[in-house]
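User: Hi! I'm working on a homework problem where we have to compare a predicted structure to a textbook description. Could you give me the structure for the chain below?
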Amino acid sequence: MNPLPLKERFGLDRFFLGERRSDGLPLTLNQRRIFILPTQRGLGFGLLILLLALIAFVYNNNLAYMLAFLLGSIFFITILHTYKSLAGLTVQEGQATAVFAGEAAGFGVHIDNPTSVERQHLRIRIKSGEHFTLKAYSKAHIILYDLTQKRGWYPAGTVTVSSTYPLGLFRAWSPIRFNAKALVYPKPANQEIPFPETGSTKNQKGQFKKGGDEFYGLQSYQAGDPIKHLHWKAYAKGLGLFSKQYGGESSAEIWLDYGHSPGQSLEERLSYLCRWVVDAEQAGLSYGFIIPGFRLEPSNGPAHYRKCLEALALFNL
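Assistant: Happy to help. Predicted structure tokens:
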């Protein structure tokens, strides 16, 4: 292990932001990565020791001296035990979960205790934390959540592993900056709006051949359409009344196009388009997807759904 330069050794970033990890390999906590400071309880405990030593000096009281030295020895031995509560643990980043803007993104962290010593009163956090205990030769997988605000890539930030074991007099911590990031989709619009008019693929004569058994898409309900052809799932979600269309030679699908999305700003239009994607997938429709510079042919299912949402999350005009 190469020695750190003096400037880097005492840099504030090292104490609060930690070491950046971009290789995804396990990181072992050691003396270079673990920092210790007294807690508020520890400062009070140290002040008590000084007060007892002063009383013993002023009154030349041997019992006061003995008590001060006893508490002092506990104070300093606690430093070693607090350090050992973290030393030797290995930490590795896990998978991050994609979410919609405004939801909490989850970042997985793997922690391994390869020693024969049980680690108690551990805490791991990003902005909110979780307490846990690691038994000897055991592993833990913990998911940390952080609230997102806008679409795009959301970095995990600094993950801090800490402990105040055994007496709470000192806090040992190790900050780590993982390269993990979660993809944040646009927040779907709260208002449910009808799908845009269904696009269609015509046959060579430019006409549809209806009356067959092959489903080719939806169109807005018109008086006289058979009741059995109504798409009740879309109607139940408040998306409007649509009629299923069938043909023998051609197919038609609904197209979700950025150009047809309402809204005044880019984010509003993406939000409504995201609403369409979510509703179309939940309704079991086959849908095409178009944004400037990106196009997906009509389909459905988890893979198609994910590709549409990823394109919305990373879209920039």
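For your comparison, note the following. Residues 62-84 form the longest helix (23 residues). Residues 210-314 form one domain. Good luck with the assignment!
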